[in-house]
Amino acid sequence: MEKQQQMKDDVKLCIDSQKDELYSLSRDIWSRPELAGEETQAHDRLVRFFSQAHTWTVESHYKLQTAFRASWGPVGGREGEQALNVGFLCEYDALPDIGHACGHNLIAEVGAAAALGLKAALQNQTELPVPVKVTVLGTPAEEDIGGKIDLMKAGAFADIDLVFMAHPAQQDASFLPTIALDEVTVKYHGKASHASAYPWEGVNALDAAVLAYNNISVLRQQLKPEWRLHGIIKHGGVKPNIIPDFSELQFYLRTPLVKDLCILKEKAEACLRAAAVATGCKVLPTLATYHSLFPGSILSFTSALRR
């Protein structure tokens, strides 16, 4: 217990001693919001933050243009033994127009602070049962394309054993369940024509978009209470006197479980295709699926450190 208390004290002292730098980091990211995939200033700010410590190995533009990786260690354990790699995530992209409404600047600050704290707790320990390494990943583009998916495909998580991330919320919680989500982009292609002189020659892609939106709205009445389906019309034409030959919508489909998402997706696709049939347009839906997450056990990790 004395050893554990000392490690806790080391974490607290480390974070308290760097609270001004951490606040400045968060404030800089918050005051200069950048959209998904365009977080050059936030990327550079975080890279400088970890590079200034000199004890971190920092890789800028890691796998993705605005991602980074900072690592420290391993320490403890026997020489040649495989290290337990503990990861912390930093997000830092913002939303269009309203900036950091989801608090990704705070996710960056907390991820950095937690990594510094764990490093402080470990660096003076000589009798750890296994070697431990600390890794920080900057994961951009979370508000749009789900940057973690691209990082996973690129192998960024391949050598990390467990990962921690904190997200702002209105209450304290050790885990916030993440539901499954389908991001659906729908594009209708019709035929342009003059809306006054020759309307019968046109195929109205905006009509398809409006029908699709209304179909989805009617479907929403029959959804289970925990299911969500919402979206916007992103593009609906150029000028009032031209029948639109192109329209685009974007919908989010959310359910607690992936198996439920498959059912909701089938119902939504029927609504979208029906609009194409009714108007004579061609429809091209594209999907990006995000699976639901459940809390994993960290008992093996904590047990290993206590042995």
Automatic annotation (TrEMBL):
<comment type="similarity">
    <text>Belongs to the peptidase M20A family.</text>
</comment>
<feature type="domain" description="Peptidase M20 dimerisation">
    <location>
        <begin position="184"/>
        <end position="277"/>
    </location>
</feature>
<dbReference type="Pfam" id="PF07687">
    <property type="entry name" value="M20_dimer"/>
</dbReference>
<dbReference type="InterPro" id="IPR036264">
    <property type="entry name" value="Bact_exopeptidase_dim_dom"/>
</dbReference>
<dbReference type="InterPro" id="IPR052030">
    <property type="entry name" value="Peptidase_M20/M20A_hydrolases"/>
</dbReference>
<protein>
    <submittedName>
        <fullName>Peptidase M20 domain-containing protein 2-like isoform X3</fullName>
    </submittedName>
</protein>
<dbReference type="InterPro" id="IPR011650">
    <property type="entry name" value="Peptidase_M20_dimer"/>
</dbReference>
<dbReference type="GO" id="GO:0016805">
    <property type="term" value="F:dipeptidase activity"/>
</dbReference>
